[in-house]
């Protein structure tokens, strides 16, 4: 759509600007403020320059948390994206069953995040949870509060349970936009199922799939509540992801300076990914119009 | 080709011989996937209908003596049900605020070009993506200093951080689908901006408003970190109260499960109406 230039449109945007500035800019400035100052209590602050940033960049703790975070995001993307596409390809094409599947698949997306944690905390327990009980009965030594591997498997499976449907729903929306003519042409060419997927379905899904991947990366990158409820970051620090570590530092130990420096670096990463996301979105918009 | 009529159908339906096995394999995949999704939820429901003795005593796949006592506990104890009231209060407040500021802004983004529009649109997106963990402490200090700590409005405003950008993006996605000629015709017919927007434009994007409202509601409903940080007693959300089921005699599993089931209900009630827009909503109005 060709838009007209109209500077008065600013008045329409102003309420949003004021509100979001209040809830985003002021807090962010507080964080910036803390990140360059030091305190010895009594609300007395001293200029610390980039000290906290240097300390955080040298701290093993942050790099470990970042490593775990990247590993977590990597694993869940590697599982959820192919699985989501696979599920989307097997969705009914219409009618009652399509609606039924859509509603059922959306259910996990609408559950409060700590309840998701609670569900899996219970589900994995050896004494009262179905999963833990069954695993225990068939002789698997499974204890997510003690064993690092079990804890990781639990939070990964939980995230797959929680969010694969989102990838599937987006991929499904992409699939539905492919005209029948494409399939007919493929049939005349006697293309194999794989070739139909590789040369018709995948390219047509690429746009929405990029959105799905970025959304999943983004949301998994700042995940907090679900793993916190299940493992509390443990055993030890095995599942302490970035957000969990940050909250521990800021609200638990009240280490304002390091936590603020940490926050800013965290936010810069998010900013970078947002930019990629924005570029993908606008490209998609331009192609559509 | 002998089977010309067959080619009319999408590739996956033909040929006839493979039809049965194809459909079956699709059904099997979907059944397995849905089973995987529903089993943990079923387990929670199952537990919520059991007595604690049965939960801890013998391992049963369905409640042997069905009881609604856990739900009765929640619905009769103010300490519990006020959690739902609190959650609903700030969620509804947030949805109303988000939508009312987002509607005009989304219209501006979808219709006009103005100084800094692209930057502003991008900046909104970064707030949708902002990690709540970064904002938890500053929010706590900000709302404490203005005397709004532990109020519904504080949580509602805090959730605007990600819900306003979300609403703007979703609504913009719907509005760009409405032809601009409609606006121009209305102005020629003598409508003012306000009456055009309310009487003509809003009915046209009614489904978009519904979807945006649903997503604002949902994201505010599922968020816990900020709402827990900003409340202590008066506005404490149900999700935070749930973490306190640990009594003297251990965790009250039945009540915990019942509370969990009740938090799923609001989403489950409206999901059917927005089923075709879920992908669009999550993709911020794109797709």
From TrEMBL, chain A:
Subcellular localization is given as: Cell membrane
InterPro entries, alphabetically? Answer: MetI-like, MetI-like_sf, Sugar_ABC_transporter
Keyword Ligase in annotation? no
CDD domains to which the protein is assigned, alphabetical: TM_PBP2 (cd06261)
Highest taxon of source: Bacteria
Concerning PROSITE patterns, the annotation shows:
ABC_TM1
Q: Which residues form the ABC transmembrane type-1 domain?
A: 66-277
Q: Name one Pfam family in it.
A: BPD_transp_1
Transmembrane stretches, start-end = 12-36, 70-89, 96-123, 149-175, 196-218, 259-280
Single GO cellular component term: plasma membrane
Q: Tell me, which GO biological process terms does this entry list?
A: transmembrane transport
Query: What keywords are assigned to this protein?
Result: Membrane, Transmembrane, Transmembrane helix, Transport
Membrane topology term: Multi-pass membrane protein
> Belongs to which family?
Belongs to the binding-protein-dependent transport system permease family.
Protein name per UniProt: ABC transporter permease
Q: What organism is listed for this UniProt entry?
A: Pseudooceanicola atlanticus
Automatic annotation (TrEMBL), chain B:
**InterPro entries on file:** BP-dep_ABC_trans_perm, MetI-like, MetI-like_sf
Pfam families, sorted = BPD_transp_1
GO annotation terms (biological process): transmembrane transport
Q: Indicate the principal place this protein occupies in or around the cell.
A: membrane
* UniProt keyword list: Cell membrane, Membrane, Transmembrane, Transmembrane helix, Transport
Note the superkingdom of the native organism.
Answer: Bacteria
One GO CC term on file: plasma membrane
Q: Any idea where the ABC transmembrane type-1 domain is? A: 84-274
Q: TM segments?
A: 27-45, 88-109, 121-140, 152-175, 196-222, 253-274
Coiled coil residues, start to end:
none
> What protein family is recorded?
Belongs to the binding-protein-dependent transport system permease family.
The species this protein was found in: Pseudooceanicola atlanticus
Q: What is this protein called?
A: Sugar ABC transporter permease
Q: Which PROSITE patterns match?
A: ABC_TM1
Q: Where in the cell is it found?
A: Cell membrane
Gene3D superfamilies attached here?
A: MetI-like
Q: What is its membrane topology?
A: Multi-pass membrane protein
Q: What SUPFAM superfamilies is this protein classified in?
A: MetI-like
